[in-house]
Each structure stands twice: as C-alpha cells, then as structure tokens.
Amino acid sequence: GDSVTQMEGPVTLSEEAFLTINCTYTATGYPSLFWYVQYPGEGLQLLLKATKADDKGSNKGFEATYRKETTSFHLEKGSVQVSDSAVYFCALCNFNKFYFGSGTKLNVKP
Amino acid sequence: DGGITQSPKYLFRKEGQNVTLSCEQNLNHDAMYWYRQDPGQGLRLIYYSQIVNDFQKGDIAEGYSVSREKKESFPLTVTSAQKNPTAFYLCASNKGGQLVTEAFFGQGTRLTVV
Fold it and tell me: What is the pLDDT of residues A23-36, one digit of tens each?
C-alpha cells in the first residue's frame, strides 16, 4: 500500500544553519505530495505542496522538489530560525486518501 | 473566515463511557477525515467521508463510529470498545472529488480517559 517514510528526529540545529529533512514515498499512480508543520498542541498547517513530478513547492523559505525517479520530496531551508522549531510531516495524497510520515521534530537553538 | 472547528479542545472521559468529538467546517468541502495522533507518532486514519451520508473505515476504525448527515459536520464517537482512547484527535477536510487539494486541519481535541 501507499506509505511515507521520513527521517527520524529530533533534529537540532543552530540558528541560520541549513536544514534538510528527508522524505521518501511509496505509491501507485501519481500522488500529490505535501509538507505540513505542527506547533505544540495544535493541528497541522500546510507548509508547501507539489502535484506532479519536478514541481517545486516553496513557502516561507522552505522548498521541496517532487522527484519521481527517486520517489522523494525532501524539505530544505537555507537558514533556519528559532521560530521554525516544530514537528514537520511529509504526506502524500492518492485517490483522495492522505498518508502521513511519522513526523520529524526540529529544534533550533539561538 | 472559513475554517474547520473542533470542540472541545480538551475532553476527559471515565472508562466505559462513550464520548463524541465535534468537527464542523464552513469551507464547503465534500471530504472529511478523522485522524488519531499518539505522542511522538504520525497520524493514523480512523474514518473518512467523501460525501454526505457516506463514510469508510480507515486503518484503525475499531472502537470508533462516525456519521455524516450534513456536509458541514463529521462527528466522531469514541466508544467504550476502544481499548486505549487517550490520544490527540485531528479532523481534516478537503474539496474531494477528482481534483486533489490539500487537507485543512482543525486545532485538535485531546481526549484523556480517567
């Protein structure tokens, strides 16, 4: 069945460091891919999305490229801030069903 | 403002009692979803509904029930048959149909069995 695998955390970085959170997926057909962010005690908020191969989603300095050949959708940011500390979820949507990774907690230290 | 509202934010239940979690959306979305999140884990799908008066079981439906009598509402009942109900519950919606769009989430309900 469809599934998403993302790197385990926590990931701890200093402010202004480069961030990569790896995400790979397994799916039939042509899923859409998403990154969501969750702050403590809250629901998930959409960070960015890509609906077809080679699309690049971007928002608030975060980027991810839909790579069909490697079935990946890695999240990157060139310079993280303390306010980026949160849990990040990679997700796919196929036939209108969503599948989520287990989440990666990011801690950014000043 | 359009959005998806879950209530209550915190809920306490005694063992053996059923409890219903509310989820309302004013986004005119056809599809609605319920997920369970346990500490340090991802989201697991409980039930989903693609259209009014229809719903399907997700991966962990045992001990839960839902209804979809109105487009705007998708309440989840946690029954006494659910052996470990303490968790964070998230409701989501999206447009559904052939066009794949992102899911919008509510703020969640934290259920604790005491």
Answer: 999 998 889 999 99
